[in-house]
UniProtKB/TrEMBL annotation:
Its cofactor is Zn(2+). Signal peptide: none annotated. The gene is hemB. One of its GO terms (molecular function) is zinc ion binding. Its EC number is 4.2.1.24. This is Delta-aminolevulinic acid dehydratase. Homooctamer. InterPro entries: ALAD (IPR001731), ALAD_AS (IPR030656). PROSITE patterns: D_ALA_DEHYDRATASE. It is an enzyme of class 4 (lyase).
């Protein structure tokens, strides 16, 4: 036998051959598109740090929803920017709140489009934290209370389900949130509504542009007492174990690009669907370089997405979803 003994290049000789042996692919059905809905009327405003992503008031939303469904995208993740904020985030669980109202309208326009509701309080609280804040006099610091926050989170989830949300996606990283929400949904008759848990959510600088978009930056302190330390991987297993035990239907890893090892770990460990959240700064960085002409944006985006699939993700939340859908069609 001649040298080299092993010729891996045989399976790369033509596009057809490469297609035949391809292990992973990104499809339209993998995509979830985040949409920001804001109060007021006549608002369609581009988010400065996220070119191509907009705030929509509800009256401007229909055209966007039509575009999304025409592209074949079958799921959106809804974020609300409310008119009023208070210490308890009451606009998050107001039956006529921005997310609830938007959900009802979207369900009229596009009944088959899956509405995933982000369930959190940070856009709705005046302090910008994801739960109830208590000032600890002794320690001279603000604590985010776990169990008191759960009650508000449950109310939020139930009101979102009542408005027609198809999936509840709790993102606030309080302990026990999956169990509390599951119970709340079941008691309210929404036992069929799945929970997509932000199981492994790191305290990440990659959320910067989102916080500008959602007006949800904490007014003091940071989220490090509830979101995870980027240096930890074993802790991700503990977080996911808890969510699985509490009845989560899908497990999310967030952010995505710097955390593909975590995705792979969860994929190998659990049989539940794994969700990758390709977050705001991951979008902004690629978009900025693309707009400068420094990179081939389409190629970079598709390579990143197939990387998530290879790492074990079943679905991807991404601000590139509309672009990807158009590319897959074209
Ligand atoms: C709400 C929430 C955040 C994101 C999704 N849900 C912000 C945060 O936790 O600070 C970030 C999404 C993104 O950056 O695209 N808690």
């Amino acid at each position: 036998m001649s040298f080299p003994l092993i010729r891996n290049r045989r399976l790369r000789t033509s596009q057809a051959m490469r297609n035949l042996v391809r292990e992973h692919a990104v499809t339209l059905y993998d995509l979830i598109y985040p949409i920001f809905v804001t109060h007021g009327t006549g608002v369609k405003e581009e988010i400065a740090s996220m070119p191509g992503v907009y705030h929509f008031s509800i009256d401007q939303l229909e055209a966007e929803i039509r575009e999304v469904t025409a592209l074949g995208i079958q799921a959106i993740l809804l974020f609300g920017v409310p008119e009023t904020k208070d210490s308890e985030g009451s606009s998050a669980y107001d039956p006529n709140g921005i997310v609830q109202e938007a959900t009802r309208r979207i369900k009229q326009w596009a009944p088959d489009l899956l509405v995933v509701a982000d369930t959190c309080l940070c856009q709705f609280t005046d302090h910008g934290h994801c739960g109830v804040v208590h000032f600890n006099e002794a320690k001279k610091r603000a604590d985010v209370l776990n169990d008191a926050s759960l009650e508000l989170l449950v109310k939020t989830a139930v009101s979102q389900a009542e408005a027609g949300a198809d999936v509840i996606a709790p993102s606030n990283m309080m302990d026990g949130f999956v169990y509390a929400i599951r119970q709340g949904l079941d008691e309210a008759g929404f036992e069929h509504v799945p929970i997509m848990s932000y199981s492994v959510k790191y305290a990440s600088a990659f959320y910067g542009p989102f916080r500008e978009a959602a007006h949800s930056a904490p007014q003091f302190g940071d989220r490090k007492t509830y979101q995870m330390d980027p240096a930890n991987a074993r802790e991700a297993v503990r977080e996911a174990d808890a969510d699985v035990a509490e009845g989560a239907d899908m497990l999310m890893v967030k952010p995505a690009m710097a955390y593909m090892d975590i995705m792979r770990m969860l994929r190998d460990r659990y049989d539940l669907p794994i969700v990758a959240y390709n977050v705001s700064a991951e979008y902004s960085m690629v978009k900025a370089a693309g707009l400068q002409g420094w990179i081939d944006e389409k190629a970079i985006v598709m390579e990143t997405m197939v990387g998530f699939k290879r790492a074990g993700a079943d679905m991807i939340i991404t601000y590139f979803a509309k672009d990807i859908a158009a590319w897959l069609k074209g």
